[in-house]
């Protein structure tokens, strides 16, 4: 289905619409609602909402960079949840989607029942780091538009962050590649410019305020994000950290194991009367 928010038509899918508990999934950079299909195959205890972020999947790809700012994305998500009549929900986000989910929880904590962050960070701590990252992301954005989506995907799938995906079955690697190739180069470029790690604010100083249950999930082979999660655990008042034998994209490499850990965590919190 499509919902228009602030002039942008968002694509979303709703599964198990009659269930009371709601879990919203937010994909990473170059992802879409398709990213989560292996995770939700047997997930029948909750309403599932899958959303294509701005510039991704079947959601619009505006030409104006301002539409892609993290602040605007948070406002758009909240308006989406309002239209869907979702008062309290669990937010699951991966990588860029995890940064977005965390930012949303800081901006609208009253709507969040629980937060699940897969391979995610609160951003970069210093303005110097953010400026350096913005410069790199701008270069990448220019290359995406100039070189086209196929050239970009060929380079993107070879970055060290995804080394652990090289051993995946060929059929799965084809699916991942097709999902990336289906993206709009303008949408990806503007997503980097508007809500990349360098463009967003740092949320490290806000972690202590988040009193809702938070599950951090990282891959054992993803040392950078394992270390980030360990730092986040020192600041979050109500968090659990789980490590899976995988790389950065855990839901892709180990979808059943990822789903099991998340569902068990949410079941414990729901049964425990968290609200």
Report on this model:
The protein is built from 10 helices and 8 strands. With 275 residues, it is an alpha/beta fold. Strand 5 (89-94), helix 3 (96-107) and strand 6 (112-118) form a beta-alpha-beta unit. Monomer. Pathway: Quinol/quinone metabolism; menaquinone biosynthesis; Quinol/quinone metabolism; 1,4-dihydroxy-2-naphthoate biosynthesis; 1,4-dihydroxy-2-naphthoate from chorismate: step 3/7.
Give structural attributes.
275 residues, AB_hydrolase_fold, 2-succinyl-6-hydroxy-2,4-cyclohexadiene-1-carboxylate synthase activity, single chain, alpha/beta, 17% strand, Putative 2-succinyl-6-hydroxy-2,4-cyclohexadiene-1-carboxylate synthase, Rossmann fold, 8-stranded mixed beta sheet, globular, 10 helices, AB_hydrolase_1, menaquinone biosynthesis
